[in-house]
Amino acid sequence: MKEILIISGKGGTGKTFFTGCLATSLNNKILVDCDVDAANLHLLLHPEIKQTYDFIGGKIASIDETRCIQCGACKEVCKFNAINDRFQVEDFSCEGCTICSYVCPEKAIILKDRISGKYFLSETKYGILIHARLGIAQENSGKLVTKLREIAKETAQSEGADYIVIDGPPGVGCPVMASMTGVDLVVAVTEPTVSGMHDLSRVIELSKHFNIPVKVVINKYDLNTEMSSDIVKMVESSGIEVCGKIPFSEDILASVKAGKPFLEFTKNSLTIEIEELIDKIT
Amino acid sequence: MVISVASGKGGTGKTTVVVSLALSIENSQLIDCDVEEPNVHLFLNPEIKQELKVFSVVPEVDKEKCNLCGYCSTVCAYNALSVIKLDSSGDVLLFPHLCHGCDGCILLCPEKAMKPAHRGIGMIKIGSFEGIEFIEGRLNISEVLAPKVIEEAKAYAKKDKITIIDAPPGTSCPAVTAVKGSDFCILVTEPTPFGLHDLELAYEVTKALNIKAGVIINKSGDDALIEDFCRKNKIPVLLKIPFHRKIAEAYSKGIPLIKAMPEYKEIFQRLYRDIREII
Description:
heterodimer; A: alpha/beta; Rossmann fold; Alpha-Beta Plaits; 38% helix; B: alpha/beta; two-stranded antiparallel sheet; 11 helices; elongated; iron (chain B); iron-sulfur (chain B); 4Fe4S_Fe-S-bd (chain B); MinD superfamily P-loop ATPase (chain B)
């Protein structure tokens, strides 16, 4: 079984579009949307949710007013400024370190599990999809990503799947790292812009840090062919293969608007090219 | 005044808006809070005058005092400490990437065997470009404490300037940390189901933080999807930027929109006046 992660560094380069292509083109796979902050893959794959789970993302503190004597001990130790002047815990700021509960002389701190979001096991016509919805302003997205990947792995094993295809989050932070650890291949989708190139170099750096092979796809390459060749040079100088270039296409935009994976939306020379590109990756 | 620019999803044109707005108005200051992928500098090429490291506090164990009781690892909610005790020796292992710097272990160690040490997790760059003050937060590769770097970048803002914040994508802690405390939040979106979905989430953030919001539709064309949502939720559509090959090309080369198409300067000045009126 092979785990493939689609990643981009920068948002909006076409990660989800490309994952949608893999969803249509590969057989016998489990799909995972690890962009838990702003999951979009379901907008293309239209899953039917089979199981829903709560995601417990740690603890959250609150103060029992009837016990609190407003001594200020909790406020003093809270490094996250989560306790306001009225001795209430501000949910957005509390990081669940629980240290306030150790110092409160009146045992007035209540610790509860923080339900940070939900995750789902769904069926789509392209296979099983594991996805999630992180609550607004919740942290621990890395932990949620790890959870999704655990379920994906278990499901893939029990179903005897050949591939796990992961739509990754943008950036290079904690959810990206959680998406990346232990995968067999990273496919970095980039675009020929100064930001695209800049962010691609950060993603490549991160992949090297984890020692994972990378292949690069340049999307919308004809928007700036000069920049595209600069990217090719930059990528190849770090010993990485650019395995494909996809032109800017109104058809692709239309498929996203229609909420359909591109390879299913239309059949033309571009779809054949993309299928060949996918053969090269897998 | 603080105006933040957020989007839910990446790649909708946040940086384009941030840069053009800052270049169009007087007395502006720009903070790039997209610390995982700071991109504003690619468009402004600011002259950097100061570089400051951002540190996170991690515990340092005094092996003379530590009796390997293991209490530190019990209190650590992030599993950043592990204590190994063998017959005659042992060790306290710190996993610095998991540490949130809550100081709990330092405070609660019964032997007072821990003291704070500092670990670099990122960088703040301060400079200027054509009279615009520029601040950038940058998280080191493989670090996770983005909110810490964002808070520090925001702390360098000058109060007498009009501050424009480029927020990171998403709706989790980094995005919230960036937007928090703003007087107004511009939500940049594009007219696709993806754009709408992420706009809904980003709008939830501004509601939760009690910040007034308005929408800019980028790559505008058939905008009914977004306009319906804005009408239903009474969010003003402040501006539409059409999809234009010239705009995409300028962006790809790192040329700010208002430099490539100077007629946009007036449009962004009007945008700023509209926002002032709403506040």
